[in-house]
Amino acid sequence: MRLRGVSLLGYAALMLTALGVSGCGYSLAGRGSFLPAYIQTIGVPTITNRTAVFNLDTQLTQKVRSEFIGRGRYKIVPDATDVDAVLTAEVLNVVLIPTSFSSQQLASSYKVQMTARVELRDLKENKVLWENPSLVFSQDFPVQSGATDLNPAAFFGQDEAAFERMTTDFARTIVSSILEAF
Fold it and tell me: What's the pTM value of the predicted model, to 2 decimals?
């Protein structure tokens, strides 16, 4: 059978090709990007730490850079000059919030909560591509026996695992939000 000069087999092949080219619109998470194509190099200078938590800026900066590098699409440098875009971030505060109490009414677990401001700026167009002025991250941790220091800076010495989880969550959230336009 022929339809205006095209055989039925040819028509079917043409339709299958059209369907294959159009695709379904889905792609693997972390593989796409809404950033302009000319952005190839992103500067990630050290994150500013406005808290008393020692080394928080270093840990967060390393995690964010590693997360970007793990995505494999952009060159990540520690500078804010000679780049196509720059990511700036600032940790605004870290607080401890008691979440459960012992029978003696002493806190037996806490939530550490960190608030940060983040911005990705396109330096070519001098415009903000992505920002969040008030990102909040938190992790729960049990109080170690005999711990009496309620200073948020002391938290990171008491529970390294919670610190690791929070900094990793921060980096993944930032990079995913930027690259996947959430």
Answer: 0.73
